[in-house]
């Protein structure tokens, strides 16, 4: 050990000097009484430093696992809104077999092939001035202020046949920005399901956006009127199923007027010309 220290000193005299100073200081601190304030403070600082180093190492080491779990959770939410998530489902396998990921240019409604769909992070892109665009106040009914120029969409297929289209949506509720997916049938008009998987609304009130019973009310609803306008909305007091326009209406959340309005607004925005309307029109025209 002594020879090793001498060898180190031979090649790095300055480092050896600092090391010797540290040893002298450490020996002096350790020789102090356990009741000494100086010793207590130094031991506490040393422990904090060691813990900080260990936490940093753990963070770096676990980062790949965290990234995988995040991607797995996203796939789970997509399979859920697609109606493909069952108990015991192999999420990676089911996603690979049934879901095709695409990137769409919201301005043209066309698919984009020069962006890596697996690496593209839409949330990060929405915050990046080089990849986003600011939404004019008069058009920002979802209160999101900015959006990514390109967005991911997920096509559910059985063989070569398109079964449904899953669109990412987001908008502000009462307390939080709600993130989710809206699944439409292959006609790009009929709702299959909705999944607002990430939100911070009031539990038992606005937080009921995740309630399976409320989500089930969306199935079969229509997004666009005969005139091609976004007609799908939430209504206070419940939907009168005897009315012809009930196909465009979903029960609002009881006691959560502002959250319900936020859901209506995000649907209005993302299904409109600022969102996916151009893309969905092309889907319908191409059959």
TrEMBL record:
Transmembrane segments: 43-65
Record's subcellular location: Cell membrane
Organism superkingdom: Bacteria
Stored SMART domains: FMN_bind (SM00900)
Modified residues (FMN phosphoryl threonine): 257
Keyword Nuclease: no
Obligatory cofactor(s): FMN
GO CC terms: plasma membrane
EC category: translocase
Keyword Transferase: no
Catalytic activities: a ubiquinone + n Na(+)(in) + NADH + H(+) = a ubiquinol + n Na(+)(out) + NAD(+)
Membrane topology: Single-pass membrane protein
Keyword line: Cell inner membrane, Cell membrane, Flavoprotein, FMN, Ion transport, Membrane, NAD, Phosphoprotein, Sodium, Sodium transport, Translocase, Transmembrane, Transmembrane helix, Transport, Ubiquinone
GO molecular function: FMN binding; oxidoreductase activity, acting on NAD(P)H, quinone or similar compound as acceptor
Entry EC number(s): 7.2.1.1
Stretches assigned to the FMN-binding domain: 173-274
Any GO BP: sodium ion transport
UniProt record similarity statement: Belongs to the NqrC family.
NCBIfam families: nqrC (TIGR01938), PRK05346.1-5 (NF003749)
Quaternary structure and interacting proteins, as annotated: Composed of six subunits; NqrA, NqrB, NqrC, NqrD, NqrE and NqrF.
Function: NQR complex catalyzes the reduction of ubiquinone-1 to ubiquinol by two successive reactions, coupled with the transport of Na(+) ions from the cytoplasm to the periplasm. NqrA to NqrE are probably involved in the second step, the conversion of ubisemiquinone to ubiquinol.
HAMAP family reported for this sequence: NqrC
Protein name: Na(+)-translocating NADH-quinone reductase subunit C
Phylogenetic lineage: Bacteria, Pseudomonadati, Pseudomonadota, Gammaproteobacteria, Methylococcales
